[in-house]
Amino acid sequence: MVFVWNIDVDPVSSLLWAIALIGLSGLPGLLLKRPGPGQILSVCITACAALWGMAGALQILGGAPATRYLLDWPLPFGPSELSVDPLSALFLLPLLLAALCCSLYGLAYLPAAGQPAVEKRVTLFSGLLLASMALVLVARDGLLLLIAWEVMALSSWLLLMTDQQNLQVQRAGTVYLLATHTGSMALYVFFALLKGETGSFAFPAAHSLALGGTVTLVMLVAALIGFGAKAGIMPLHIWLPGAHANAPSHVSALMSGIMLKVGIYGIIRAVSFFQQLPVWFGWLVLLLGAVSAITGIALASAQRDLKRLLACSSIENIGIICIGLGMALVGIQSGDRVLAILGLAGAFIHIINHALFKPLLFLGSGAIIHATGTRQIDRMGGLSRILPRTAPLFLVGSLAICGLPPLNGFVGELFLYFGAFSDGMLADLPVIGFVAPVLALVGGLAVITFVKLYGAVFLGVPRDPELAHGHESPLAMLLPMGLLAGICLLAGIGAPLLLQLVAPAVIQYAGVSPLLFTQVAGAVPLQQLALLNGLLLAVILVVWLSWRFLVQRAPLASSSTWGCGYLAPTPRMQYTGSAFSELITGLISGLVGTQGRLSGLSGAFPASARFVSITTERILDQMIIPSLQGADWCLAWLRRMQHGHLHLYILYVFATLFVLMVWSQP
Amino acid sequence: MVSLADQLLVLVMLINFIMLGSSRMAFVIRAVAAQGVILGIIPGLLHPFSGHLLAITVSIILAKGVVIPYLLNDAVRKAQIRREVEPFIGYVPTLLLGAVFTALAFVFAQKLPLAPEHRDLLFVPASIATLMTGFLILTTRKKAISQVIGYLVLENGIFIFGLLLAEAMPFMVEAGALLDLLVGIFVMGIVINHISREFSTVDTSQLQTLREE
Amino acid sequence: MLTYLLVLLPLLGGLIAWLIPDNRVRPLLLPIIALPHLALSLYLIATPSIKVPGSWLWLDPLGKITLLAVSALFAVCAVYGVGYLAYRQERSNRVLCLGLLVCLAAMSLVTLCQHLGLLWVAVETTTVSMAPLIYFNRNARSIEATWKYLLICSVGIALALLGLLFLAYATHVAHQDATLLLSDLLEDARLLNRDWLHAAFIFLLVGYGSKLGLAPLHTWKPDAYGEAPGLVGALLAGGLVNCAFLAILRVYQICLASVTELLFFQQVLVGLGLLSMAVAAVFMARQHDFKRMLAYSSVEHVGILAVGLGIGKGALFGVLFHLINNGLTKGVLFLSSGNIHRSYGGKTVEVVQGALTRLPWSGGLFLAGFIAITGSPPFSPFVSEFSIISSIFVERQYLVGGLFLLFLAVIFIGMALTVLPMVMGRPRTDLEPTDYRDQLLTVGPPLVMLLVIVWLGVWPPEALLQLLKDGAAMLEVRS
Amino acid sequence: MMPSTLFHILLLLVMPPLLLGVINKTKAAFAGRVGAPYLQPYYDLARLFRKGSVFSSTTTWVFRAGPVVTLAATLLAALLVPLGNHPAIISFNGDMILFAYLFGLARFFTTSAALDTGSPFEGMGAAREVTFACLVEPTLFFILITLARMSKSLSLTPMLIYPSPAVWVSAGASMLLLVGALFIALLAENCRIPFDDPNTHLELTMIHEVMVLDHSGPAFGLILYGAALKLFVLGAVFVNLALPFKSGNLLVDWVAFVAAMLFLAVLIGVVESVMARLRLIRIPQLLVAATILSAFAMLLIVR
């Protein structure tokens, strides 16, 4: 590639080099005959490059000047431009962190010794995936973005296909490929229209695009569909649970923690072009966000598959991010700077947070699968005995994703609540105020979901005896989780740091003065929050100590759990995850249904019967699949045209001739 | 001379009807041969004598009058094709259709902006009529062999139009066209042969295994 | 004259092939002829060709582009042929080798022709010479396919001939001396008689369109592609299609010269193109036979070419580029699918499962080819397709663009639902695999082609782009 | 100021069990019994703290952490609410959100601890607890946002000190709706009748009491105390809304507050005596109704 160097190493160039290195990190492995060394090498390369890149990203966020590079390739679309502004850097930072963690994790999760067949493939494509995602973030023109986008989609698909002989994986992969490729079609429309209006694929300067109403509408909708499909916004989410559930865990972590955000980035970037957004757009994003948040977590609460549950909760988090984004867009449109700042800050902080705790949880689920070999929550239980180190890390992730203090998840939501409350307090028609109850409901559902998850997986006793003898994961898997968990805790207690991180991007995007930003964001009590978090830990410590004191004074005994008089409790009597969420699932059965089937309970002396219940998703089962079947029926009818009669084929020829003759007669 | 050509063209059109009407394969083949020979003669009547002209005449008569009929007969014999023509729709309807098409051809030819010297000649209507006859045979006859014949008639119709501008077509192109026609018919003959071997019939309405269910 | 050698060399080869008695030695002749032919073509393409006024044979940029596509494809197929025919020793390959070489000669001739009559002859020759090749497998299905191919294409070509006569007559009526030499036609196209010209264009379009396989004239395609050996299928989809399209381009040139007809012709092209894509979309869904699926994909891409040509302007570059990309990618697909067919002894998705497991290379190539043909980067079809799409929108043809993308999406879904179950999963255990194994000669050629596609998609050589630009310039409206 | 703050903290720490005592006394009175002395809960706590503990062999550290974290979170939440006319110990913009989420944290640990025992009964209780609490959340936030709009402030102290007889006169309708919704939320959050029966853990009422079945000794003491504290905190919120009696005088305000709290306790006792427990299926309906009430309250003041 021909880079036009204009100054010596600056943050952008170091980032670009890091991206290039990560992208190529898989290649040495291909050249080596023996699997293994290549993997280790690629991990080293990725790690170093990631650290280097993070330094660059931090420099950019610190206000370093962003140079622009020209990629002058002979493709007939003109040269492409690459650059990094605070917005890109904001997304690059978690990406690189995830790259570091996931590649290290993969070393132990998919050891070359275990699967020599897939190891090289996975190494190569995860490098490609990371690089292409980063490239999407640094691209400054539509074509490069599209190419990187497609490469991202394909490499993630190929990673998802790691276990391609498994029928379930195959199905999930097919749905994913179809969804993502059809989504790209919308992007074709978007960028083709951009070219048509501006004459080039290069991104126009922010807020410089003033177009006619229809074109703007088409472009916005296209962007929302194209990028939103990748982000998994509600009606376009059908591919998401299956894909994230069936990929190797560290890949799921990347897909869920980072790739969804790339979709969000696309929306944010695309919207920034327009000088004047239609007012409805912000509201639309807000609405979609609310719907995604509620339905997403509702779906999650009903899942029995460990990773499906996490995947669905990703939809929820994307929804929360979209709520913030919509809030900001409405604010920008109506000239309400405060709303814009709070919304953006909330969205951006939540983006970072979700990119911290969702990978943590997926890596944790990987450790669980590694130990038990199943994804079925209802078979697990009491795993905190065999996974004594994973369990607390997973707990940290669960608390964080519920947005509970003192962890980082709370910080982002705090900003959104502030937006909602300030609107509810002042606006004469406080529609955005309703965001607060929505978020509260989502938070409550999240608590249900993750208490269920953590409780059913780690607590109690194993429901399935053969899962009782698993083993704790090796250090290479624990280390990344520990790192992520540590950062979650740090970011939660040191909340002001997060604000520091997102400040430049917010200022740039909302187009406000740093002064105003410090005023508005300063009103959010991050210092007090930090203090209180500290205080909370202190109080916990005090209560804990006093409790210890009391306990040690008195005799201590241990026995089996009190079964209300029932003397022979068995592990299978425990409340399963499904049972735990049954109550709430019954309340939201409009979104997600559980179909139960009780087999063979008949006669005076019924034989052993079994009850099977499966979770179904309404949108997929009752809207999309039937429509596809209808379409297929119509096509089948049309297909009779190819009937095999040669005479009629020749008749077609003459008919065409005739029709053209007639058509052409003026 | 030109008027003679016109009468010959009438003959050609009659032959069209004969082919539509007759049920005997051998007879139809002979009719095609006759049509070919006539078409071979016509250029001689239109244009002053030249080597080019002679070559064309000879080659056409050879090809259409001798070689192709021989190939067809050969195919008929090799493939033990039954003597009947076996149409999808009866002879009378095809004849009527043929009549309608011929009439239309005359009407249509009136509308065409012909060069003044061609205005009152039968070339254009005859060519269109023959074209349509070929099309009829192609679409209404079951036997592969009769479809070949239909193709031939189609070619003849085109050729009649070609007569209007023999000089536009350099000899080389003419020859190439003829050669292609020959080879084409030859290959078709072979294929028919194989068809009859594979299916023990050359009824193309049997050839329907390849289709979308 | 090297130009003539381009045609004579394969003819000579054909003759030799006919004379060689040994069934094992004969296939070696294919690369021995094809590689020099490729070298020769590359040389001719590289050297600027001088136009001799009134000459019938010379390479203009359009011809060069087609020649490049055809010759490169043939060279690869020839090498593949050696490996393939080694597996097909049970029957004589004399006719096959002869037919292939004659077809190469005819195709080269097509790219050279500046005289429409001669062009017609060459195209007809390709048609006839291909017929025995489709019938290589010698069974009921293949004979049926051959018959349909032969008859429909012959009828079409005959109509094209009539169109040519109309064209000549148009000159005649306009009191010019009747001619079919391209340069002359281009000069005085404005003077020609409109009605005859009009009729001529319609007949030529239908005639060559049936050869090209535009819907609804495509009916022979699935049968022929489905029954022919993969090798032949590749040449049908990448060679003959390109030749027929070159013929259409010639007609387009004349339309361009006679300003009045252009709009109508473009409308017809867009209409038929979209119709072809629609038909492809309809028949791709639930397609159980992957070779027929490839045939419909070919119909689709012919449609894309037609639409692009109809849009004109910026799309022309993409069209010409797509001509090459489509040929090469189809080559990859057909050759690898041929291998899969060999190994499983069947070509329906019921039989073929888990190709990646049984034939890692062929299966992978087929998958990659599928991804490439559906227009994903980093493969070159993305570049050409996307430049066509973007210029459709730049020309503000929103309806056309919308339908275009819609059909592309449906086609992708249909194709994916056929291809993915084939390559993924486990092979059926109840079916015995044949003795076919992937080996260098059967896997190398398509692999090379795939690499070329990637190369063209990421960093195409300047010379090629220049050539394409020149070609596009020949098709642009000069005011 | 200093002594008042001290008294404030003292009241927070000491008064909660008294409320339970008052409630029980009231119920006893309705039942025509003498009932346990007012200070009975204190005696119970003292005894529990002296008792030894039994831990189920299935449990892990989560089980032990449950009561501790719950109590800690509740304590911290208690510092955020004003008592009557007296500002909270800690007060800043947005503390109400933290307030709500601290209860979330407490809930997370209580229920996790319950699940840690691996007993079906406790699992059932935990499931019901989280579900009903989740349905209460929106109500709470509608109330908070309505108060924020009324008092034009984003902190609990001004929000809760704002209501006054004047406000009741001006915006009586929405205040009434708010108080109604809040009372329902209060009962639900503290697992009182009609949602739960604190005296039994029969299957139908298995919510709070059954969750803590397996806790014993000091741990159980912590839980009881935590529950009482929670009642006290939410009660304080309710009192500030429903009985906004304010005089500038420090002492008078304290007395008024304590009296109001006791009155609330009596009120709860009355409700528990006169009402029957709801069927489990009806509970969500009542909670949703409360949400609607609070939403109406908001609409009313927007208008």
Low-pLDDT parts of chain D are none
Q: Count structural domains of chain B.
A: 1
Q: How many domains make up the 3D coordinates of chain D?
A: 1
Question: Strand count, sense and closure of the main sheet of chain D?
Answer: none
Mean pLDDT value of chain D: 91
- Please state the CA-atom Rg of chain B, rounded to the nearest Å: 18 Å
Contiguous uncertain segments of 5+ residues of chain B: none
How would you describe the overall organization of this protein?
The complex is a heterotetramer of chains A (666), B (213), C (479) and D (303). Chain B contains seven helices and no strands. Chain B is mainly alpha-helical and 213 residues long. In chain B, α1 runs antiparallel to α4 and α2 packs antiparallel against α3. The mean pLDDT of chain B is 82. The longest helix of chain C has 34 residues. Chain C has one domain. The two termini of chain C are 36 Å apart. Chain D has 303 residues and is mostly helical. In chain D, α2 crosses α12, α9 packs antiparallel against α11 and α9 runs antiparallel to α13. The longest helix of chain D has 32 residues. At the A-B interface, α24 of A face α5 of B.
Could you write a compact summary of the structure shown?
Chain A is built from 24 helices and 5 strands.
List the helices and strands and how they pair.
The complex is a heterotetramer of chains A (666), B (213), C (479) and D (303).
Chain B: H1 2-21, H2 25-46, H3 51-78, H4 91-111, H5 123-140, H6 144-163, H7 171-199
Helix pairs in contact in B: 1-2, 1-4, 1-5, 2-3, 2-6, 3-7, 4-5, 5-6
Chain C: H1 2-19, H2 29-46, H3 61-87, H4 94-112, H5 116-134, H6 140-173, H7 182-187, H8 194-212, H9 220-227, H10 230-257, H11 259-284, H12 290-311, H13 315-344, H14 355-358, H15 360-373, H16 380-394, H17 398-423, H18 440-458, H19 462-474
Helix pairs in contact in C: 1-2, 1-4, 2-3, 3-4, 3-10, 3-13, 3-18, 3-19, 4-5, 4-10, 5-6, 5-10, 6-8, 6-9, 8-10, 9-12, 10-11, 10-12, 10-13, 11-12, 11-17, 12-13, 12-17, 13-15, 13-16, 13-18, 13-19, 15-17, 15-18, 16-18
Chain D: H1 2-14, H2 16-31, H3 40-50, E1 53-56, H4 61-78, H5 95-116, H6 120-151, H7 156-161, H8 165-170, H9 172-189, H10 208-211, H11 217-242, H12 250-274, H13 282-302
Helix pairs in contact in D: 2-11, 2-12, 3-11, 4-5, 4-11, 5-6, 6-9, 6-13, 9-11, 9-13, 11-12
